[in-house]
Write a structure and sequence with these properties.
about 100 residues, mainly alpha
Length: about 100
């Protein structure tokens, strides 16, 4: 079993660029930043329409250093499933 981690034990590497499109004081942007630190570099984002889509931005000015796919509500699960199937086909089983 993996040891518990706290916000103090998260890596210092940032995955969200400074100066995002989030509203001032947005709690989602803080949760997004900390959540991505907890998930780490080996993360692919699948983002349905929401405030997070605005925060994430569109290529080539995305707010994160991680690969991201903006999708429709109806296709979110299918897109994530397709990404997982592709990773498994490439031999990446640790996701």
């Amino acid at each position: 079993m993996q040891a518990k981690s706290t916000i103090l034990s998260l890596p210092t590497e940032e995955f969200v660029h400074p100066g995002t499109r989030a509203c001032t004081g947005c709690g989602l942007s803080i949760a997004y930043r900390v959540g991505l630190k907890a998930l780490g570099r080996d993360t692919i984002l699948v983002v349905p329409p929401s405030c997070l889509t605005v925060l994430q931005g569109l290529f080539p000015v995305a707010s994160t250093k991680l690969p991201c796919l903006n999708v429709t509500f109806a296709s979110t699960a299918a897109a994530a499933t397709g990404i997982l199937a592709t990773l498994k086909a490439q031999g990446n089983e640790h996701t």
